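ARCHIVE CARD
Drawer: 12
Card no.: 0347
Subject: one protein chain, sequence and derived structure
Cross-reference: see card 0346
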Amino acid sequence: MAYYGKCVEMVIEQLDKFRPDKDSPERFLEAASSSLQALSPQKQAFILEVLSGCLEYRKLLTIVVDAFYVRDGRLCLWADYSLFQVICYLATFQLEELGFQLFSSIIKSQPAAKMCKFLGFFFNPLNLCSWVKDEWSLVYEASHVEENWLRPLMRWQPEVQQLISQLEGVLAFHSPLSKTKAKVTEPKEFNLTAPKPRTIPVPEPVPVVAKPKSVPQSTYKMPKEQLQLEMIKRYNRRKAEELLLKANMEELRCAMPRSRAQPPTQDSKEKMQLQHPPRIRKTSKLTFFRPDNIPPVKLNTAAILREGALYQRQVEKELQRVDKLVDGAGDFSEFLEWQRKMQAKDREERLAEGECRRLQGKLSHEEAILARQNLAQQKKQKADQKKEETARLMLQCAERRLQEDRSLKQQVEQVIEQQKDIRLAQMKLAKGRRQRAQEVMEESRELLQRSAEAAREEQRRRCVLIAQLRAVETQPTRKGKLVDLTQIPGYGLEGEMSVVELRERLALLKETQQREEEEKRDQIIRGKRTQSQELQNTAEQISLCRAAMGRSAALRWEKKKALAAASGAPSQDERVQELRRRVAERAAERRKQAALLHAHAPRPGRAKPRAQLEERHWLELEQSRERRFQARQPGGSRRGPARHLEAA
């Protein structure tokens, strides 16, 4: 026990040194193997194997240990974090190879209270089959986790429970003795000298304070600026109330009926105001009515031209249609009437198909409930068969476990023999690395010498060039030069001229360009005036076309409203009636089957309101679909187009 305890302590010590954000696992293992050279080969192999396994499966071990500290290990020290990781690794990945006897000796070499608490938490079947399986499946595949890790842990469950009971017995046997009550220190009073009585101090003279100035009258008065602001605010409010009163009176005057032959006189207006005085609501915020003469939306040039072209194309199409009618072409009124009837028929068919789909869904729901009830009876029969098969399989598992234990022991012996040659291979590898490092150092030394010689040669060449440049700079040069602007250079080029002639020609060219720019500006102004006149004419045509389109839209809406009011409700389809009948039969059969199930197998617990909730859900769904079906009728969608008519 002490042997394995020391090995585990050395593994914990190496794990505490590992920093995942700075160290890499490969280099850390190499450093750990170099620090463990003084140990025996068997102990060194065991420590390196456990350490490498903890680093490789660090994510899985962290999940379990963190959950242990959150749930059952709140009173455990965080210094034992690496200890719990090592125990978790040995229990999960090395229990089959080590054997239960060797594993129990390792556990007994550690503090019994910590091991008892951690093993009870980790080997709890509820934890292994629930959150441990889910968390490990996020890192590795679920099938691999289930076959290679969780099933062996569940197989070792009885032996681990016996080990936990042994640890609990050891804890109960070595319970700490009751401590004797220590003597309480009795305080003693200090032997201090009595203080001298204090002398009464001489009163200080009262200082003479200067007389304060009186408070100015401006403190109790409001400033002039604030008074002016209050006056302006009252004036604006009074003016707004007068405007509101006039607007309300205008609204009441427009609402009262009057004949065209006799316009209202001043006396009638006064009587009307006396009989029906306008009501003014006193609110914190004033309400202003929207005036009738709203200015039209200002359109830009592109919008005016686009809308004008649209109306022009519509006028051309209408003229072409009139020409065709004059030439003897047929009218589309009969086709439109036929199209309207076919659209109404298609709409009725769509509504009927929607109702059929709803009823089919309800029918499938009822059939699913019946199938679920039949499935519950079948599952009950299968559960009884499974219990018998489980008892038989448990016996087979026990026999197979004994065979696996024997094979695992043989494998452990083979692995121990193979690990003896690891030390020799590591020494050969280190010797080869040292030789390669010496060769690389010699090559780098030669390269540095060559680069130093090249740098010295380059520095020597630069010094020669600098000396030559300085010699050239010391030679005297002529600084001044006389220039005649009227003289031609005489290079023999075509069109050669003096600087004065060049300046004169440039001045003439600038005047010509300025004159051309003024002509272009005048031409652009004339084009803009012509374009603005055309846009104004197009805007007038657009306003006329809009008025005509509004009148035609109102007429079409009135006609459509009359047709919708005249049309009746769609007739019921035979498929819908047949589906409703089948749904009612299935519902009656389901209630009968449920009553039989409750009568044969009553349960003492409270009944789950799942069936009631499902019936309520389907009833609300049916009511909502009926309301939607009524809303799609021609008479139920009258308010929507009215808004479009008002907008037009």
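Annotation on reverse: DSSP finds 20 helices and no strands in the chain. Confidence is low (pLDDT under 50) at residues 254-295, 602-608, 634-648.
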